[in-house]
Amino acid sequence: MGFLFDGVLGITWQMAVMWAIGGLLIYLAVKREFEPALLLPMGFGAILVNLPLTGVLNVIQPDGSVTAGIIEWLYNIGINASEAMPLLLFVGIGAMIDFGPLLSNPKMLLFGAAAQFGIFATITVATLLGFNILDAAAIGIIGAADGPTSILVANRFGSQFIGPITVVAYSYMALVPLIQPMAIKAVTTKKERAIRMNYTPKNISKLTRIIFPIVVTIVAGLIAPESVALVGFLMFGNLIRECGVLNSMSDTAQNELANLITLFLGITIAFNMRADVFISVQTLIITALGLCAFVFDTVAGVMFAKFINLFSKNKVNPMVGGAGISAFPMSARVVQKLGIEADNQNFLLMHAVGANVAGQIASVVAGGVILGLLTKFVGVI
Question: What domain count does the chain have?
Answer without folding.
Answer: 1
